Amino acid sequence: MTEVVTRDPRRIIEDLHARYVRCIDDDRLEAWPDLFTDPCRYQITTRENVTRNLPLGLLECTSTGMLRDRIEALRRVNVYEPQTYSHHISALEVTPRDDGTFAARSNYLVIRTMAEGDTMLFSAGVYADVIEIAGEGARFRERIVIAESRRIDTLLVLPI
After folding, report:
1. CB 123 within 8 Å of CB 46
2. Domain 9-147 carries which CATH code?
């Protein structure tokens, strides 16, 4: 496969989003932390918390080590029904920031399919990101997952 070289930040960020989705949806979770800087911030929260300026989320990791621990626990400790996700991302907005990074905001939809074949809307909301671009690649410095609903399955097995 030939890699297309571009300096367009939007294209580089779109590629980062695609790699993020592929890591999760294709069960290559061990590669997922590599998409983040170290330190980083990965938080899952709700629209209600953001609207009310409540700082606590449902989950927060602040280093790639914490992200790796999350995947290790998922693989070795957590007991859960096998499931897969299908991510759909749209409405990407990219804004340069004064510190050389980029703010990105996009809508997401995650469809979950259980082992028996039942499919459901698992989560919908917004990704609010801070992204660093170095060379031809990009990584998340911060990814805040803002779920529309505060009703979320109590076992957040896979990253959203």
Report:
1. no
2. 3.10.450.50
Of 128, 29, 32, nearest to 83 by C-alpha is: 29
105 closest CA partner among 97, 116, 113: 97
82-101 pLDDT, tens digit per residue, is 889 999 999 999 999 999 99
CB contact at 8 A, 103 and 112: no
Burial category of 148 from C-beta neighbours within 10 Å (exposed 0-12, middle 13-18, buried 19 and up): middle
One-letter amino acid at 84 equals: T
102 forms beta bridges with 96, 131
In the chain, where the domains are located: 9-147
